[in-house]
Amino acid sequence: MAATRPILSRAWKAASLGLLLATVAAMGQAPTDADKDKKPIGGKNADVPLVERLMAGRKEYQFTLEALRAHYIKAGNIEKARMAEEELVQFHRITKQVFNLGMDVPPPTLKGQYNIPEANKLLITAMRYKDKGWGNDYIDNQRRAELLLQKLLTEHPQSNKISESAYQLGDLYESKAFKQFDRAAAYYERCFQWNKTTQHDARIRAARLYELQLNNRTRASEIYQEITTHEHNEKHIEEARRRLQELSGKR
After folding, report:
1. Secondary structure class of 46 (helix, strand, coil)
2. What is the pLDDT of residues 159-201, one digit of tens each?
3. Are 129 and 144 in contact (CB under 8 A)?
4. 59-62: long-range contacts at Cβ-Cβ below 8 A with a sequence spacing of 24 or more?
5. Would you call 53 exposed, middle or buried from its count of C-beta atoms within 10 A (0-12, 13-18, 19+)?
6. Looking only at Cα atoms, what is the longest distance across the chain?
7. Fewest CB atoms less than 10 Å from the CB: which of 61, 90, 143, 195?
């Protein structure tokens, strides 16, 4: 009997955790009388209000921690400044899921026409972090690079570096630090949509992701076809033609 106690204890803890989570969820979702009269909201963009709240909440949480850190530094309270900084680091380490891709990725109609020094600096700094380090340092550096590249797109959407930034973001989101393949494919697309003559392999990488990771053969075929007419890399063109033949045979 004694030998079974640890197993029973673990099972009890798991059951207790499950009960706790179910109870909390029920508390947050308990319908009111007014809710009972409402019809379920459907449609492609039904999640938009909730995703907007989530994104706003994330920003508010980050800005508040940053403000707290600045306040404690100014007040000379180094211990509390360190506490705020540690929590801020943990916040950035968390992978932020993208529940609505259209609200995360800038539109394909942006035109990066201007040489903006501030944007150039953001890109240079981001590349100093990207792909650098090992273990937790590697993960932290990828997060730093992501923040800087996203800052570039948000604050300088007319910069002539937006296509480069989109490619680097696609590479980040495809990497082991994120593994967000739908997000990666979308940013690869923005790379060649914002600069149709890009020298990056954004088209072939987007097409591979749509075919092999996202099971979207229609979009993969469209991009493979575009490679045969827009690119000069013979290896990419050969691969695209081969994949088009293979995909057309599967239909």
Report:
1. coil
2. 999 999 999 999 999 999 999 999 999 999 999 999 999 999 9
3. yes
4. 61/91, 62/88, 62/91
5. exposed
6. 75
7. 90
For residue 74, how many other CB atoms are within 10 A of its CB? Answer: 9
CA torsion, ordered 23, 27, 29, 34, to nearest 10 deg: 140
Sign of CA dihedral 128, 133, 137, 139: positive
What is residue 199's predicted lDDT score, i.e. its pLDDT? 93
- Cβ neighbours around 22 below 10 Å, total: 10
pLDDT of 26 > 80? The answer is: no
Dihedral (CA of 157, 159, 162, 165) sign:
negative
Digit-coded pLDDT (tens) for 93-133: 888 888 999 899 999 999 999 999 999 999 999 999 999 99
Classified as helix, coil or strand, 31 is coil
Q: Which two tokens stand for residue 150?
A: 């996203």
Nearest to 205 by CA among 193, 215, 220, 218: 220
Joined together, the tokens standing for residue 9 give: 């204890």
Residues 210 and 216: their CA atoms lie apart, in Å, by 5
pTM for the model: 0.77
The per-residue pLDDT for 163 is 98
Say how far apart CA 129 and CA 92 lie, in whole Å. 15
pLDDT score recorded for residue 35? 44
